[in-house]
Amino acid sequence: MVNQALIGLLHELVNNGLETPRLPGEKGALSQGICMRIAMIGSGYVGLVSGACLSEFGHSVVCVDKDEAKIEALSRGQIPIFEPGLEDVVAAGVKAGRLTFSTDLATAVRDADAVFIGVGTPSRRGDGHADLTYVYAAAEEIAAALTGYTVVVTKSTVPVGTSRQVEAIIRKAKPEAAFDMASNPEFLREGSALEDFRRPDRVVVGCDSERARAVMREVYRPLFLNETPILFTSRETSELIKYAANAFLATKITFINEMADICEKVGGDVQDVARGIGLDGRIGKKFLNAGPGYGGSCFPKDTLALVRTAQELGAPSRIIEAVVAVNDARKSTMARKVEQAFGGVRGKTIAVLGLTFKPNTDDMRDAPSLVIVPALQSEGAKIRAYDPEGMKEARKHLDMTYCNSAYDALEGADGVVILTEWNEFRAMDLAKVKAALKAPLMVDLRNIYSPAQMAEAGFTYVSIGRNEARA
Fold first, then answer.
1. Which residues are known to be catalytic?
2. What is the domain range of residue 329?
3. Count of alpha carbons within 13 Å of 148, Cβ hemisphere only?
4. Predicted confidence (pLDDT) per residue in 390-404, tens digit
5. Are 183 and 238 in contact (CB under 8 A)?
């Protein structure tokens, strides 16, 4: 691929002794074979993926975290999250000496040209605002460790104005510090994060000085070489771009879910509706898959945080408020849809395939299963569940029977519900599925099968926004 070739070329150049030019007053000349020294504060999903990929670009990266067990595990090559390909990238970075892990924030920051803040910003209990506790704590520690000129970058998803607040914290704690602030939001999709980092649609950087822009250009040099669009803007604009992007995508998901409800009333097909409007270049085909509602680490908390921020600013976003409300309600609606399909679930055993909020991740945060499964259990259903990667996390939240395979979950169940569209569920042997179930009933909340196919296989098949097939 073009990107990988460019990255490889860059590695070859730096490994042959090419050093990156330094700006006046920056830290000492770079070591041979290293582009920049980067400290990544936070080794969760965003910090780990970003740090590993930046090391792949040729930079020297130290990923810092307070969790000693996590750092020890990472140093042994054990990855705490499931992300396809990440283990190999981390291993390559460690082997090349460009990626290390540490609990020593002070040393990592002291030697860094750029310090990225990639800590968690969960929804704050009680009001839905983004909880910036970890961001502000990181700012205090960074301030104490700064030496020489450094660019401090907010990588975490943060409300508008956070970068200014972080800057104020650092300047108050260390008035003499030589640094600039930048905002550099991430746009990583779980399950395809490596490709998103290597081949992004765009890179957004908010900063106020040309010196900070020069450093950030250096950070993303391989992407400049590949002519990736790099948008430099103000910090406030950069922060808002991230929230606006996630809110818009969440709106598309919610919109097509409401269209699916209308299709069910009039006999339409929501997948044809999605194709019909997605072919319009102004709309686009992505994020138009009807389902049980969005979940994950980003959309739920970011839409809610944007709603709260807009309300406080006196510029409420009625569209996003509706998106949040509709999506919250949809998960309960899907539980009722399952109950109706089963003719009531009391005393029945239901096989549930897929628990994570999307495939190719083990992330259970705000997954529809966290609402749908308890709702079915409260009505008297017994659940037998299987997920290829998410069961370890699911066990922290859901008390039910966990199975070793999809077919194991199906055995003796009164019907099956598909909650996550893992590829292995798309390729099941339908005759084997039918033989394992007490009754040939499938409720497909991800539309991975066609009604005609299921009718031919002898199933009673219920999906989203399409005509049902009856055995």
1. 298
2. 248-462
3. 16
4. 999 999 999 999 999
5. yes
